Amino acid sequence: MNYFKQILTYAKPYKRYGVLNIVCNIFYALFGTLSFVALVPVMKVLFQTTEEEYVKPVWTGIRESKEYLESYVNWYVTDVMNENQDKALVMMIALVLILFLLKNLFGYLGMYFITFLRNGVMRDIRNELYHKVVNLPISFFSEKRKGDVIARATNDTQQIQTSFLSVLELMVKEPLNILFALVAMLLFSVKLTIFVLVFIPVSGFIISLIGKRLKKQSDRVQSEQGYFLSLLEETLGGLKVIKGFNAESRMEDTFTDSTQRYYNYANKLELRKGLASPVSEFLGILVIGTLLWFGGTMVFDGDIDGAIFISFMGLAYGILTPAKAISKASYGVKQGNAAAERVLEILHTQNTIEDKPGAIEIPAFAKAIQLKNVTFAYNENPVLKNFTLNVEKGKSVALVGQSGSGKSTIANLLTRFYDVQNGSITIDGHDIKNVSLKTLRDQMAIVTQDSILFNDTVAVNVALSDKNATEEDIIKALKVANAWEFVKDLDEGIHTNIGDSGGKLSGGQKQRLSIARAVLKNAPILILDEATSALDTESERLVQDALERIMKNRTSIVIAHRLSTIQNADHIVVMGQGEIVEQGTHEELLAKNGHYYALVNMQSLRA
Over 454-488, what HEC string results? Predict the structure, then answer.
């Protein structure tokens, strides 16, 4: 129930709908009970059990209200019957119909108001979940499968709605039905009511035994669902590799193994859930059957009127129905607990990279970026070891070296995708840990090796940093990035949808859109993470030309694999195993005849 309470906190903004739902459910339960009570005079009219002469009673106080009400009904029914029997029957039936109409009207209104609460809570949970996902550090998603996160945001939140939030209404509606019915039953016969109350807890205990393992089984189902959604997401993203390596059957085997496990877990869960309905149905009929026998003997003995007993049976059944609904709801709570646990795990994850209290907002970059004795490790082995570098404003610094030497890690640390573990990174003398993330990242534009584009228009992708950018701003950025030459020929120009991950474009075209995005942001610091390494010679020339344009008058940190792209850099840093092994200009490093000279010769031989 702890997770249930946490989910309920999201209902606070919608409490007015909850209050209106409770009010409607009170009237629903009241008119539902009265509709069965009203059957008593109908039965008396039909079976003419009111041959006695009754006089109009006199009100003597609240303590005698039961006797007064019973005597008044008897007097009124006999008085009307003596005048016109048909009229009496029509009046009694009309009364029952009106009561049932009011019951159903308030039942609908209760559902009407709870709908806004349920859907509002789900909207807020999904919004908060998305907010959390986009704000959690990159390191969180290196340990989580994307498909599992998607499953939590979709299937698990839906499970919360169909279990927890459905219970919200049952918590008020069904107990009120039981309460009002019990009051009426006690007025009819205390002895029969006690007899019914003995059986209901027993049947409830039996049903609860069935649902003990539901949470564990539901958790297995939801976890496995997240796993095969991850496989599906990875398959869609890697279809070229799968087909190119004839790995279709291998991937299919992995996927079918997952769906088989899901099949087994889901069968166990559904069979246990399905057992609840026939068991509760049989126990309910058992109670009714026993009640018929016990109450029937009381009718034969004259301890209770036959018409009252029929209405009592209707009320008893009216108790069993909500009682079964409550027992089924307990299953929903167990399933909802598993789903809520998975959703709340993300919502309660501590964000290790966020603004400190009193984080400062820095003005435009003016002096230098300094990395001082920076040490960093993703797991245990350090990727950077006491790394120190000074990048002055307006200078271009290139980082070169073998794969795994720590080049891209520096870009991740500068943007605070990760935090340094030892040492410090400062911008204009301010430790970036003390700077607000927004103002820090406002200073930087990034172009990565993998062109990350979204399934939207060219305009939306280019103007990602400024949703208010004009078409003129977007076209200007495209021209600077050498991208306008192909964008202008698209069917709808800048309003053309480029497909999933920019799938409708070539690699060079996608990269030039990424550069246009950086151009439009117009940040003073430019980070280029192997921006040309995946391109053919012609595309590289166009992209390199675009990069040289935007690097003018900007501070640039260039992570390069192809050394031909960084020969004009102001300063070149050669890295090896997380440390600086050489640094200087292109000519200075060639003259040293060291690591850089070897790298240049190696690439020349490959060319």
Answer: CCCEHHHHHCCCCCCCCHHHHHHHHHHCCCHHHHC
> Structure tokens of 371?
């990395």
The encoded tokens of residue 458 equal 């060219």
Q: Provide the 10 A C-beta neighbour count for residue 69.
A: 13
Query: How many structural domains comprise the chain?
Result: 2
58 class by beta-carbon count within 10 Å (0-12 exposed, 13-18 middle, 19+ buried) = exposed
Residue 416 · residue 440 · CB < 8 Å? yes
Question: What is the Cα–Cα distance from 398 to 391, expressed in whole angstroms?
Answer: 10
State whether 382 and 343 are in the same domain: no
Q: What is the CATH number of the domain that holds 106?
A: 1.20.1560.10
Do 272 and 411 fall within a single domain?
no
pLDDT in tens, 407-424: 889 988 999 989 998 999
Structural domain contains residue 481? yes
Tell me which residue range forms the domain holding 388. Answer: 368-606
In this structure, the answer to whether residues 70 and 206 fall within a common structural domain is yes
- The reply to whether 343 and 383 lie within a common domain is no
Token pair of 144, please?
A: 């989580």
Place of tokens 């103007």: 463
User: At what angle are helices 65-83 and 39-47 packed, to 10 degrees?
Assistant: 40
Contacts of 266 (CB under 8 A, 6+ apart): 221
Q: What is the pLDDT of residues 423-452, one digit of tens each?
A: 999 999 999 999 998 899 889 888 887 788
Instruction: Give CA–CA dist 233/229, Å, rounded.
Output: 6
pTM for the structure as a whole: 0.73
More confident residue, 36 or 48: 36
